[in-house]
């Protein structure tokens, strides 16, 4: 008799605990998922949607529970999200999640073996994509024999990234329609505009004066032009310009590239889908090398 009561008691306890578990699962199931921080992107547009981030953090099973997502963010290794340096998760009640995204400080990219290799102000390659993010300048003339994701770009002049950062900031400040810029062997800078025009700036300590007047200079020319501002002294007479034939002008669909490129077959890649940003190489060991 006592055994029967014990069995009944155990069954009742298990049913009670099961009911609590079902209730908790239902109460903790995510019904509110928000993200913020993405407005910090260089191009000022939303790169990820909440659904994209939910996919990155995991779906199905226990990943449908807000406390589990929160716990994983605190005590487990963070998942890799292209173009995002780090993130934090805030628990809002039992069923709400808010993810704070902290984007990588991208100042430019270079085209290498068919991929856009994005780098920060220290020359660290932070991500790679098959597509170009609007608003991020494409930089040519860096002369890299190889590029390794999440490592510094192997350039001989480390100070070039300070110059790229300064140029990028001025381009954003004056809202210039720049597609990218190129450094020649003498470290002289040429801007490539979105309409294909080229602006030769030469080599200077800074280009503030030239960039400050560039928009007004461009309005003076109705056709694609090659404009030499390397001797600009504030007068119109110091501006040398000539129209460019269509085949001579830069093509916005074919941005500046590294001068030496290997073949696609040489790349060992681990490609993942990032939503709007296209496919990205995210393997920390991925190495891009030129064909020797």
Summary?
This protein has helices at 2-28, 50-57, 66-75, 160-173, 208-219, and strands at residues 32-36, 84-92, 96-103, 106-112, 115-120, 125-129, 138-140, 146-148, 178-183, 189-193, 198-202, 225-228, 240-243, 271-273, 279-281, 287-289.
Report on this model:
- The protein is of the alpha+beta class and 292 residues long.
- The chain folds into two domains: 2-103, no CATH class; 106-277, no CATH class.
- It has five helices and 16 strands.
- It has helices at residues 2-28, 50-57, 66-75, 160-173, 208-219; strands at residues 32-36, 84-92, 96-103, 106-112, 115-120, 125-129, 138-140, 146-148, 178-183, 189-193, 198-202, 225-228, 240-243, 271-273, 279-281, 287-289.
- A six-stranded mixed sheet has the order 7-9-10-11-12-13, with no helix packed on it. A three-stranded mixed sheet has the order 1-3-2, covered by helices on one side. It has a three-stranded antiparallel sheet with strand order 4-5-6.
- Strand 14 and strand 15 form a beta hairpin.
- The longest helix is centred in the N-terminal third of the chain and has 27 residues, at 2-28.
Helices and strands, with pairings:
Layout: H1 2-28, E1 32-36, H2 50-57, H3 66-75, E2 84-92, E3 96-103, E4 106-112, E5 115-120, E6 125-129, E7 138-140, E8 146-148, H4 160-173, E9 178-183, E10 189-193, E11 198-202, H5 208-219, E12 225-228, E13 240-243, E14 271-273, E15 279-281, E16 287-289
Instruction: Report the biggest beta sheet as strand number plus sense, adding barrel if it closes.
Output: 6 strands, mixed
Number of strands: 16
The chain-level mean pLDDT equals: 76
From the helix content, strand content and strand pairing, which structural class follows? Answer: alpha+beta
Please give the domain count.
2
Order of helices and strands: HEHHEEEEEEEHEEEHEEEEE
Strand content: 25-35%
CA(first)-CA(last) distance:
85 Å
How would you describe the shape? elongated
The residue ranges in which pLDDT falls below 50 over 5 or more consecutive positions are 38-46, 249-255, 257-292
């Amino acid at each position: 008799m006592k055994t029967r009561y014990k069995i009944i008691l155990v069954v009742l306890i298990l049913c009670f605990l099961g009911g609590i578990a079902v209730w908790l699962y239902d109460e903790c199931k995510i019904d509110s998922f928000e993200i913020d921080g993405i407005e910090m992107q260089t191009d000022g547009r939303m790169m990820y949607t909440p659904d994209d981030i939910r996919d990155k953090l995991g779906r199905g099973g226990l990943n449908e529970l807000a406390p589990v997502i929160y716990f994983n963010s605190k005590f487990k290794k963070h998942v890799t999200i292209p173009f995002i340096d780090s993130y934090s998760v805030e628990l809002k009640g039992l069923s709400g999640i808010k993810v704070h995204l902290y984007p990588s400080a991208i100042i430019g990219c270079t085209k290498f073996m068919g991929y856009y290799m994005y780098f920060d102000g220290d020359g660290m390659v932070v991500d790679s994509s098959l597509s170009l993010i609007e608003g991020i300048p494409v930089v040519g003339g860096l002369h890299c024999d190889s590029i390794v994701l999440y490592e510094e770009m192997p350039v001989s002049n480390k100070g070039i990234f300070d110059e790229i950062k300064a140029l990028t900031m001025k381009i954003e400040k004056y809202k210039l329609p720049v597609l990218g810029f190129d450094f020649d062997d003498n470290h002289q800078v040429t801007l490539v505009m979105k309409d294909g025009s080229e602006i030769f700036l030469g080599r200077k300590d800074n280009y503030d004066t030239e960039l400050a007047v560039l928009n007004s200079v461009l309005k003076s020319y109705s056709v694609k032009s090659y404009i030499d501002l390397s001797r600009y002294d504030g007068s119109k007479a110091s501006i040398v310009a000539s129209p460019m034939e269509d085949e001579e002008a830069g093509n916005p669909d074919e941005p500046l590239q590294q001068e030496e490129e290997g073949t696609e077959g040489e790349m060992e890649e681990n490609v993942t889908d990032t939503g709007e940003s296209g496919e990205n190489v995210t393997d920390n060991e991925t190495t891009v090398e030129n064909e020797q």
